[in-house]
Amino acid sequence: MAARNVVVAQSGGPTCVINNSLRGIVETCRRDPKTFGTVYAGNFGIEGVLKEELIDLSATSDEEIALLRTSPAAGGIGTCRYKLKKGQDEDFSRVVDVLKAHNVGYFFYIGGNDSQDTAHKVSELARDRGLELVATGVPKTIDNDLGDAEFTLLDHSPGYGSVARYYAQYVRQVNEENAGSCPADPVIVIQAMGRKIGYIPAAARLADPHRKMPLQIYLTESGVSLEQLGENVVNQLKSDGRCIVVVSEGFDVGEYGVARDNFGHVQYSSSQTTVAQTVVNYLNTLKLPVPGKARGQVPGTDQRNAIAYASVVDLDEAYGVGCHAVEIARKEGNGWMATILRDHTQASYNVRFDKAPLEKVANSERYFPKHWIASNRIDVTDDFLAYARPLIGDDWVSVPMVDGLARFARIEKKLAPKQLSEYVPQTYRKA
Questions:
Q1: Please, which of 95, 150, 207, 372 could form a disulfide with 171 given CB 3.0 to 4.6 Å?
Q2: Can you provide one Gene Ontology molecular function annotated for this UniProt record (predicted)?
């Protein structure tokens, strides 16, 4: 059987390690030219496929592909927040037409819940349209909400270990700041990503597993009111004279102006105000038992792409799951997502790569387990720490440097010649 071409694309928010999954796919395909032909990348995800903007990765050297290991975010081939929804029949047909036109037999989609749904729908439509296409999902999300409540489909998503490491280090630094400047700034409020699922703010506890800091963690799932938060902070100030508050961006502070992305998700950092500022404003209306005021800070997109904080464990697993996705496509065929499962038979932390049906993970949403929320509802349990601690690793990542600056991969943006007419994605058409 002649080799068939490959399209790989990325969707949703980028991570420290997303490019390492891309690297795993590209390098594994290159090692088997009898099965996999030219490897294309959708320029800015599925939007690039719709527009027939396919980056010919054969124009990029092995050396540059290798540098994807420590190239953060999605600057190499781009990502998008374009969702193929029910009723967008023209978009779905266009994807299949583009894949047919470029002799594509393998489609890899790196992303979270919505991305796995897209991969599943594309695989079904291709089959119905007579295209022999193997569609394979590759997990990616800092929220760690992909999979099932029992952690049997996916133990954790690539990207989460690095954002957890970011908060473990970040909160330790904030504690030094707070300890040294508490006479003037007794309360620091930090807003963490995580719209409604608390794995990211929960990772703040990794900074202080023995609970010696005056640290309070507010997950969206905790159900604590703003008024109760204020009372908790006042009590902490009475006992310690200072307090660090980590609050989920989805914590309920009442109505305020919000913006949404194309998936319909709230974009807290793009909204008129922030949860952190709302909490700070409220705290500063209270009669604090110590001098000074509360102040807040909102780490931006650096919490998901600061490569200096990346977990080496996360980098290795992101690469491994990308390589495994290719093995699944080659041996198992259509309709799977590559997964990471923890090996509980080993005394030390170890994982194995497996697979799960796309239809089971498409649009799945795994919430933070209730039994991992502490009884006081402003902390997490030791069971969560046992789960998350191995994911952040023990060593600092080594990033190649040139003239004192990080050396990131340079992907040659050589596009495949277009075979079809121009196309405007349905969502972007004027009414």
A1: 207
A2: metal ion binding
